[in-house]
Amino acid sequence: MPLKIDKVAVVSHDIGNMVAYAFVAQFPERVTRWVVMDAPLPGIGPWDEILKSPMLWHFNFRGPDMERLVAGRERIYLDRFYNELSANPKAIDEATRQHYAALYARPGNMHCAFEQFAAFGQDATDNKALAAKGKLAMPILAVGGDKSFGALQADVMRVVASDVTAQVIANSGHWLMEEQPQATIAAIKAFLDR
Questions:
Q1: Residue 3 falls inside a structural domain
Q2: E strand or H helix at 13
Q3: What is the DSSP letter of 136?
Q4: Which region holds residue 58: left if phi is over 0, alpha if psi is between -120 and 50, else beta?
Q5: Banded pLDDT at 1 (limits 50, 70, 90)
Q6: Rounded-to-integer distance, Cα 79 and Cα 91, Å
Q7: 8 A C-beta contact, residue 3 and residue 25
Q8: Domain carrying residue 87
Q9: What is d(CA 8, CA 135) in angstroms, rounded to the nearest whole number?
């Protein structure tokens, strides 16, 4: 007998926020709570200003030439994210770095990674259409690293939702679970247990 899940709590981070928003906005009756972590929603709130940030140059770094530039240099490319988007680069250990570099070096994986960013234009159009249908009513915890999106995460979510709780994780950049796992888990657990 197939498992039937009527309602869920959703926890998303980074690119997962875009997928989660599409699900939550289209099926709000199926979601009891949403935890959204440290990544903006394309097209929502100050999206055009966010795109101008030099730290987010990778949002527009894609295409066959970029894939060729990165091929065989996946570790160098990924280290940039770990080093520049974290409060403490040493929180992303060597084993983690090697693991992800090996995964991204597999045929087609870097292409898929770049395609996620290429989809932001369509995501922005879709998100604006979803937002125009009204604000989400379920409780949302918007978590941002204090050295990354911080309180801006909640500001973005307030554009599309009416019940948003902000949580800024101290001494963390974008990599919340790697940099401050105990604080991040405690915030999520407290929210879900309410």
A1: no
A2: strand 8-13
A3: B
A4: alpha
A5: low
A6: 12
A7: no
A8: 8-193
A9: 19
Report the number of distinct structural domains present in the chain.
1
Q: Is residue 39 part of a domain?
A: yes
The CATH number linked to 112 is: 3.40.50.1820
Dump pLDDT digits (tens) for 163-194: 999 999 999 999 999 999 999 999 999 999 98
DSSP state of 134: -
In this predicted structure, what is the pLDDT of residue 3?
62
Tell me if 156 is assigned to some domain: yes
Residue with tokens 């309410």: 194
* For range 128-146, the mean pLDDT: 98
Give the three-state DSSP class for 41: coil
Alpha helices in the chain (DSSP H): 16-26, 47-50, 64-70, 74-84, 94-105, 109-118, 120-131, 152-160, 176-179, 181-193
| Per-residue tokens: 119 | 């989809």
Q: Which of 25, 22, 36 is nearest to 187 (CA)?
A: 36
Strand order of the β-sheet with 8-13 is 8-13, 31-37, 140-145, 164-169
Give the separation between CA 133 and CA 155, rounded to whole angstroms: 19
Three-class DSSP category at 35: strand
In a domain, residue 2? The reply is no
Structure tokens at 20: 């989660």
Tokens linked to 193: 């247990």
CA dist., res. 72 & res. 53, Å (int): 27
Mean pLDDT of the chain: 94
